[in-house]
Each structure stands twice: as C-alpha cells, then as structure tokens.
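Page 47, continued from p. 46.
Same chain as before, 1463 aa.
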Amino acid sequence: MFKRTKVTDGTATGQVGFRKKSKVPGVMITQYIEKLPEGKSHPDFTRKPIALTIQEGKFAFFKAIVTGDPKPTVVWSRNNGDVSDPARYQSKYDPNSNEHTFEMPHVKPDQADTYKCFAKNEYGQAMVTVVLNVIEVGFKMTKAPQQQAEVANCNFKKVLKRRSKVVPKAEEPEKKEGEIDPKFWELLMSADKKDYERICAEFGVTDFRWMLKKLNEMKREREEEQAEFVKNLSDLKPIHINADGTASFELEFDLLDPSSSIYLYKDGEMIPYTKELGDKMKHCLRKVGRKYIFSMRDLMPEDAGFYQLDVEDVNMFSTDFKMVDFLVKIQEVKAMEREDAVFECVISAPLSKLMWFGKNMPLEQGDKYDIEVSEDKLIHRLVVKDCMVVDKGIYAACAGIKSCNAWLVVEADKGAPKGKKSARKTTRAGGSGTDLQKVAQEQQQKLDKEREERKEKIKAAREAAAEAAAAEEPEKTADSGAGKDKGAAVEVERIDKTSVAATTTVAGDSGSGHSAGKASGGAKQDGSHADAGGGHSAGKASGGARKDGSIADAGGGHSAGKASGGAKQDGSHADAGGGHSAGKASGGAKQDGSPADAGGGHSAGKASGGAKQDGSHADAGGHSAGKASGGAKQDGSHADAGGGHSAGKASGGAKQDGSHADAGGGHSAGKASGGAKQDGSHADAGGGHSAGKASGGAKQDGSHADAGGGHSAGKASGGAKQDGSPADAGGGHSAEEASGGSRQDGSLADAGGGHSAGKASGGAKQDGSLADAGGEPGITSGLSDILATRGQPAELTVKMNTDCDGAWFKDGEPLKSGGGISITKDANIHKLTIHSCRDTDSGLLRFVSGDLSTEGRITVGDVPEFDEDDLHKFSKPVIVRVGQNAAFKMPFQPQESLTVSWFKDGTELKDGGGVKIVREPNHSRLLLRDCLRSDTGEIKIQLKNPFGAVEATSQLIVLDRPGPPEGPVETVETTSSVIEIKWNPPKDDGGSAVTNYIIERQERGHSLWTKLGDVSAEKTSFRDRNVTHGKKYSYRIYAENPQGLSDSLETADSIMAGIMILSGPPGKPKVVSTSKTCINLTWTPPEDDKGVPIIGYQVEKRKKDTNQWLALNAINEPIEDVNYAVKDVTEGAEYEFRVSAINESGAGDASPPSAMACAKNPNMRPCFKDPEDFLVVRAGNSVRVKISYEAEPPPHITWLKDDEPIAPWINVINTEGMSQLVIPSSKRSDSAIYTIKAKNSVGEAFFDVEVRVTDEPKCPGPVELEQTVYGKVAVSWVPSPDQELDDRLYYVVSQHDSNTRMWKTVADRLFANTYTAHNILPGIEYHFRVYAKNDMGLSDPSQSPTWGANSNRVPISSNGVSSMEISFERPPSILVPLKVHTPPKGYQLYMTCAVRGCPTPNVSWYLNNTCINSDKNYYITNSCGVCSMYILRVRENDGGEYRVVAVNSLGKAECSTKLTVRD
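Result:
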C-alpha cells in the first residue's frame, strides 16, 4: 500500500513583511524590514530538500543548505504531526559542509506527510516544503479493524482502492489448471497488433477470435477508466535494454490533473522510484515534455518481471522484461585480410535484436557490418565484411545483462603485392564450430512443448467448465474414479483424522486390515457414517455419497487405485468386496441405516464396520495394521470391534444410550479402547500384549470401564466418571505410563502398580488434592529456544534431579534415535543430538518425564555467506588517487532479518557527508567521496542475521605524493672539497613505494637552487663533491614515487665546506653628515681578512641609553661599499654604530662603535628653492603661489602685497619646507607683487612674485587708412578698452593683398595705436586687421577698409546700353589633397596641396586641431592656390594630424593627412 500525503499552504497565519524572490524555485522568503542594513541579508536556501519516496523501514533524510547574515536558525516541522520525538526525528548540522540534515531512521507509514523547513534570522525567514511518501510493506494487523470500520461506515472508496491486477507471487492464489494468467491480458492491451500472435503463443492461447472479442471489450473498459485521468495516451514503447546497461520503457500522455500520483509495479508489488535523484535509487521515472521514461540501472537477473505504470488506480502501460542467456557464445575468429569474419551465438529465448559492440563501440547494420537473425530469433550473427588489420580487437554480444565476447584476429595477406591492396576474398572465417541449428531446434522444441502444455491445460479447464455448467444437479452425482474430486478426498481425510467423540453424530468404525493405506466409512446426512472395508491396497477406498448423507461401501480391490461401492436411490449400497489390493475398502450404507459388511482383508489399510440408521453397525474384523472399530447403532449399541494381531487400533462401538461394545483384546501394536455409552457406561477395553494403548470407556454419569492390563509398551489409563470416580487403571508391564483417572470433584483414582520402566503418578482433584506419587522428581535444567545452523550438529540437554526416564517429542510426535537423531541418557542427564541440522528439524521440541515437561523451539537456518568469486573480487584492494571516489560493491543472497554494516578500520560507517551507503535486496554498495590519503585502511562489510555473522574485508589504498623525508638532515662529513649529508625515509610513502630521492643545493647569498642529482630509494645519503672551501650551502631533498614529488626537507642551517674562517674587525665608523631622516656613515676595511675575500659588511645601531644592537641589514644581504646611509632613525634621537665584515663563513668581529650622532638637520639660513617670479591667471580663477624653502630651525613665514600686509580673504598654507598663498576667486585688482619673507635664528630671506590677473582683451576700435607718401599707408585704430587696465597689452597687425591672397603678420608687440605699411603697390588691393593681445591671448580682429586699385576709380556710365554680367564666384575646393608623410626625426619636410575658389579663400593650417599659421616653427606660403608648409627639422612633437581649411564667403573646404615621425 502506498500512502500519499496532502500538501497544504506553508504561509503562517498573521505573517507580515515583504515577499522576496529566491534564486531557488519553490522557496518562499519573507523579509521583515523594507531595507536591509549594509552587509546583512535575509535567509535563503542555496540547496532545498528534495521530495522522497521510500520503503517502510528504510533510512529517510532531507538535506538543506541555507545562507544569511546573521546566521539563520533552521527549524523542521510537518503539517499533520509533531517532530519532537528524538527517537523518530533527528535534526543535525554539519559545520564543514554547512548542511542541515533532518533524519528519520526506520521510517514508518504514519510519517508520510508534507514537511516544512524554516530558516529564520532577525531580518526575515525562508520556508520550503517537501513531501515524504512511504511505501508500506506487508499486512498490518492494526489496519484490519480500520478497514472493517470503513466498510461499516460505507467508506468503500478506501477499501476498494485498486491494486495491481497482477498480484505478487507471495499473495498469488493457487492457480487452477488451464487458467489464463492476468499478465496475458495486460500485455495485450499495451502491445502492438503485430505482437499479438507472439504473446498468444507464449501463453498457449489458440482461439484468436475469442481472444480478440474479449480484448476489445476490455480495451473499451480500460479506455473509459483512463479517460478520467489522462488524455492523448500514445507512443507506448516496451521495455528494452540500452547501450549504457540500463533498461527503460516510455510512453506519452497528458495528465488531466497535474497532482495525480503515478505508481510503478513489478510483478504486482509497488516499487519505489525517484524523479530527481536519478543516481541515488535503482528505479527512476523522468518526464521530458509529454514523455514519461521509466529506467532502472544496475541490472540483475532478479530484475526480470512484469512492469506496470498506473495513474492513480488505472493501469496505463504494461510490459514484460525477460532475461535471456547464451546457450552458445561467440568464439574467437582468425581471418585473413580482405576476408569476412563471422561471430555466431544462440540464446535461450527469442529476441529480435542483440546489441553488438566492436572495440567498445556499438555496431549497426551498414556497409561494414551485417547483423543477421534467424527466423526463430534464437540464432544471431555478426558479419564483419572485408576485414582489415585495423579491425582486430574484442567484439561482444549483449542480451540484457548477459554478454559474451571474443577476439577478432586479422592476419595480413603476405602474398599481396607491395603498395597495393590484395583482392577481395569471397570466403568467410569464424563461426562457433557447433551445430547452431541443432541447438536452436532443441531449444525451440523445448519452448514449443511448454506452450503445448499450457494449451492442454487451458483446453482441459474449458472442458471441465463446460461440463460443470451442463450438469443440472452436481450435488447428486457421486464421485467416480480416483482423482476426480480432490476436495471430497481432502474432506474425507480430514474427517478420518479427527478423534471419536461421544456426540449424537457418530463416525463409523474402520475395519482392521494389513494395508498401509487408510479406510474410511461413508458419511450420511444425519451424521451416520458407513464402514470402510479392509483391503490390501496402498490406496484409498471410499463409499459413495447420497443426498441423505449415506455413503456407499467401497469394495476392496487388488489395484493401486480406489474401489468404491455403488450408490442406490433408496440409499442401499452394494457391498464392496474384500480384496488384497493396496486400496481402501469400506462397507456400504443403506437408507435404513444398515450397511453392508466390510470384508476382512490382509492389507495394510483400514477397515471399518458399517453404520445403520438404527445405529447398528457391522463388525469390522481384520488382521491388518489399520484400525478396527465397532459399529454404532441409532440406539447407541455398537458392534464389537474384532480383535486383531495387527499394529492397528481397536475400539469398541458407541451406542445412543451410551452403551458401547467391548473392544477385543489384540496382540498388535495398536490401541484398544472401550466403548462409550450415552448414560456414561463404557465397555471394557480388553487387555492386549501389543505396544498400543488400552483405555477404559467413559460413561455419562462418570463411570468408566476398567482398562485391562497389558504387557505391551503402550499406556493404560483408568476411565473417568461424571461424579469424578474413575475406573482403576490395570497394571501393565509396558515401558509406558499408567495413570489414575480424574474425577469432576477433583479426586483421582489410584494409579495401579506396574512392572514397566515408566512413571506412575497420582491424579489431580478439583479441590487440589493429589493422589500419592512414588517420588518427587524435578527438572533442574530445562529446554530453551535455540538457533541451529544448517548442516551443523545441535544438542539439547535436560537435567533432572533424580535418575528417571523420559521421552522426547517434536511438534507432538514422539522422537526416537535414528535418522540423524541420537537420544542418550546418562544418569539424570537426558540429551537429544541432531548430527546435521536440516530445515525439517525446525519445530517445537518437548521433553516429558511423568507429569513434568519442558519445551523449547529449535530454528534451523543459515549463517549469511558470500559467493567465493564475489569474495575473491571484493578482497582485491581498491586503489584510487587523492580526490577521487572509491566504490565498493558486495553481492549477497537476499535473506530476511539481514543487517548489513560497513566498517573502516573497525569503526562503523554511517550514511552521510562523504559516505554513501546503498542497500539493495541482493547487494550493498559503499561510496567514499573525495578520498584523502588518511582514508587508506581496511574496509569491511558485515552481514548479520540471528544465526550468525559473516565478514568480508578489502583494502582501500589512496595514492598520493609521498610525505617529505624525515629530518633533520645530518651532516656526516664536511671538508674543503666534500659535504656528505644523511636523512631518513618519509613516514608516509603515499601508498606506493618511493623510487628515488632528488637533491638540490643553494649557495649562500644566491637565490637559485641547482639540482645535484638523484639517488635510489635504498640510499638515504648524498656526497656533494663540487664545493668551495669556506662557502656555505643549503640542501633540500625530495622523495619521488609514481604519483609525484613530495614536499622538500631542507637543512635548518647552511653547511660550510671546511672549517669556519671569520674576518677581522673593520675600522671605527665615522659620521659624515646627519639630518632628521638620515645619518651617513663611512668606515675602513679590516686590516686582517684572514685570507678569505670579504663579500660585504653588516651595520648595526644602538640607541642611546639602551643595550640592544640592531642589525640594519641581514648577513645574506651584505653592504658591498664602505659607506652607508642609515635612514631608519627617529628625529631627535641619538645613535652609535658598528660594522662587521662578512665573508663566506659569515660575519666577523664587530668594529669599535662610532661617536654618538643625533638625527637632526644642521642650522641654516632660509633659502628658496627654484621659485617662479611671474604668474598670470585668468580673472575668476583661483591663484596659487607655491614657494619651497630650506631652513633650520624652521622659519617664520610672512606674505606681503606691494609691501603691504595681505587681505584677510587671502589664505596662506604653511607646511614643512613649503608655503602656499591662495586667492580663491581672483579679480583684476589682485594683480600685484607678492613678497614672501622667511626668518629664523640664523637669518632671513625675501622673494618677490608678480601675479597678474587678467582676461582675453577686447578688440580694438575702427581702423583707418591714410596714404602720406607714395608706397606707404598709415594704419591707425581706436585703442582697446582694456589698454588702460592692462599695461602688458599690445597690438598685432596682419596684412592681406590680392596678389598673394594670404594673411600675414606685418607688425607685432605694438604699444602704439598707429602703424605704417610699406611697399604698397598700385593696382593691388590691400586689407589690414588689428588685434589686441595680452598674456591671455588675442582679441577678435578689427577690419580695415579695402585699399587698392579700384578704391579711387570713377564709375563709368553705360549710357543706357545694357551688358550681361558674368559671375566667377565659387566656393573653395581642394584640387590636390595632402599626402601622408613619415620622415625620420631631424629631417626636413615639405607638405603641399592645391586649393581654388572665388573670391580667394582664406587658408589655415592646423596640427591636432590647433592653428599653426602664426607658429614660427612652420614656414607657410600660399602662391596662386598652391599652399605649402615647410619644416626645417622634424621633431617628435611635430607628429600628428595636419589639416588645411579653405574658407570664403561662399563655403568651406578642407583636407587632412597624418605625419609619423620615425626614430
């Protein structure tokens, strides 16, 4: 049963805040405040729990990873229940992986629910829901009352909930012969029409018309059911095995309700599956669009079966998954080049297609390969056409999980001409070498035989059904012939096994016989039963049955069958004649009650006297080993049961009034019993010398007949009377027990004495009084329940307090020595030994001694065991590299109550973190993720059941680089030419042996490490012969194995070659100069360097009033010169210094300390460093005047403006070594001479800075032209308005003539308002422009009137004659553009272009958008439209984009080029 959950809304009542969206779908986030503080965040899920469907009793868990700042708290809950029980629910947190885990060990069906995970902090909460479905296993007793209650409440929907029509094998009822398997119809409804014939043949159905008719009816019903849940059901593809070793089937449909549940069944049993954890469970159901794909991995033979997919309670698809095996496997093929190779195999069941692989690649039908299948689909062939040498390799055939493979060996054709292909061969190589057709025919015959047997069963079942339907009164028909009515035979046998009771319904007595069979009297409607006659048959003979209940007598027979007397309408029955057969003979019964006599027989059967309606019964005589019983009459009288010498049982008859016939004595091993009368009187049980039992009869008033004594091994007991007084039990010489009877009032009769080895015990009375007993034995050590291993001996021991006899019983049957059982007695100790336990030995064992008993149950089972091949495979070590996953798998036989545990180095492993344990019914897998070197160790799996445990061990070896060699490095020898070192092997070799060691060396004072070589792993020392005396060396050693190099082991200190020779002390250091940041020292080299070159010096300092000398440089960073600037000083502090000389052996003796030196600057008069004396600033901008100075002590700074104190709004900023004057927003009035004055105790200094605040000048006034003399024109203009405000303003005059058509500057830096132009020629037009210029730049020009040829011409009248005016005006255009130039640096450059236009355009040259017409570095000319630019020496800053712009009143034209200066 599959318990599903109900999903409810996960929003808490009254929850307020702001909803936020999570990156993970399905997470609902509520933020408590609108804006989060910086660096804080609400909770969120980076991994949400995944819905789980799991079997009852398994380990269920959910995992989640949450984020948030501050760290959220995680709480789990469920919709319909409490999760506070720690035994059922456990919340855990792993700080390493940040995983929150909610675990449910041994999950139960009532835990199926919708679970919620809340992550909360002070800024919000995140919530996600997840569904747990639990598959119930087996029948629950507590469910039955609930189901009955649901029926009583008319809640039939739950009670009648559909299960798979194909019930599990364990619940499958006993199938009648010929009944059609429900799988047949389920397969047909999901199969294509082309497969109908195959399915019918498989299930033995031959009536296709009947099949199609019934199938159409079932399909219509099924489609109506399916329409309630799905639509568009199509593309049903049966289960098949894929190339990756998985099996899958698929179908397409649309769910009407997306929340409908989908169930999977295998052989009628629901199987768990997953939708999201495809690699965590065996079965998976994926949805791709409309397509649903069911797949299963890790295929095993037990995965074969009948699979169904249901939506809610309606089947959608059924398919049968069969496993086939190879009867003949493919064999190795040796083929010549250009020859065809053939692989052949035979499988056990028809299969339309095998998967063929060549060199691990799937093969398909094509030009290279032919795939052939026989008509019966049992023989499969692969033909590799035109074999070449490259085709050799391993080829495999796969049929599900079964596969076989073989080599293809291609031999080159030596006879082929060189450089050419050999001719294509028509022969084929290979084949299995066996008669495949014969094997296939035998298999086909076997399959056909199975089908025919199924057909015969179906046919016989139909005929039987037809006969049953045709019979009008089946109850009147007597059973005839052996095996026709199995049910009646079972009922007769059941009745025959019951004990004779003193009631009004009396069973007939069975006659004695020598047969080993059983004879029984018939049963009548009024309860009377006919006698069964004796017979020599081993079979069973029964009388017929009549409507009134009387049964005819069964006659004896010599056959092994069953003989029965006929039945008459009036109830009379013919006598069954006696016979010497192994059958059963029974006396007949007549309607008046008188049955025929059952003839005596010498068989081993059972003979019984007949019963009459009036109660009279015929005598059953016989010497057989059966049972002889007297007949019963209606009035209670019963015929005597004749004595017999057989091992049977003789019993007196019972009369209606209670009287019973005497049971004759017998010498057999049977039992003799007195009859019982209705009034309580009972006939005497005759004594007998057999091993049977003799018992007195019981009367209604309580009186009981005496049980006669006997010399047999049986048991004699007195009878019991209604008033409680029993008859005496006669003495006997048997080995059994004689006991007194018990009375209703509790009094017990005396137990008679006997000469047997048995036990005599007094009886028990109702008032508790007990008759006298011969002794008081007791059990000091009894039996208890034990478990025994199959095939092993087992021993049960009972210890008594006295030496007395006892008997052993198993499930109520007495036990004797023999058949693998030994019963021994040693004084008061009784033992039962089972030499080799079998399943049949399981049961309840009981030891009885007198009225004392003890019992215990023995259960035989097997200790779990592993297959030897699997154990051998598992014992092989698993070797992985660091960071890889290690997987272990161990198959085993499925068993109940089997516990599987995994251990590592004796510690049990649990599922979680980096450990994944998967338990399947037939195997278990262990996965260790991201293995570390420390994971190396023993892996053990333990199977445990109540009979014992078995273990299998393996080794996990995680390979890694070795650890570093063990130190420290020891110096074995050091001389002027050799250094020998020694080390120890690494503690951890990384899982593989160290192959060698690598040694590197570094000379002191150098940064480079040099490889000296390597040594083998057996040697852990190295001699370095390439050393220089007095030098120090450091060494490092690496261990190497196949995984790589270890970390290095390095020498702690440098090792000197030879003895240490240190230099003498240098001269006393002298202080050259001091400042507050630096003290400069100098010294002299040592007078005695001891013959070893000095490589540098080490300087040390000591602060005044301290004792510690601090080194200013390391020994490996020597100062190579004999002077040094000490910058690590504190201003105002006093220091002394000393120096040591450094050679290859190290630092020598230190020099005497220097004189104390104070870190401060020397006194000096203020002086200014590179100041600027002039500054121009545009009006409105800020003025910043920076002056740097040097002085000691620091001077006092003063600023003056025109020798007057500066205004308050002018800021002065003084820092160490610099003073700055700042005017925030300057005006023209701020122009002045500013003076800085620096004064200290040594002296003072002054410096003047002229600051001019100005702006671009306004243009001059109107320009006038006047000719004073020939060839000269006086140009005058009105001054610019800024002339009075700016004494640095001057004028620039430009001239333009119609001859050159260029503007050129003819006067610059004019401080007057007039200019005289020279060389003014007649017939040429002249124009003049006047600019005002100051430190900020040029003003706009003032244009002069035109001076020239037409200025004084008198206009000529046309006297009325009109003339046509012609205009030559046009806008500028570029006739010849500029070219690209790349001159070397320092070379001259000539750049030209041609321009035209009317009026003549004004041409301007630009470099990087800056006009260069007035730049003296460029010589620019314009002659008749040819514009030229000349550079005498090209500089780096002359490179860039040059542009020529021509402008006149009608338009504008331009061209450009790039100039690149080469080095």
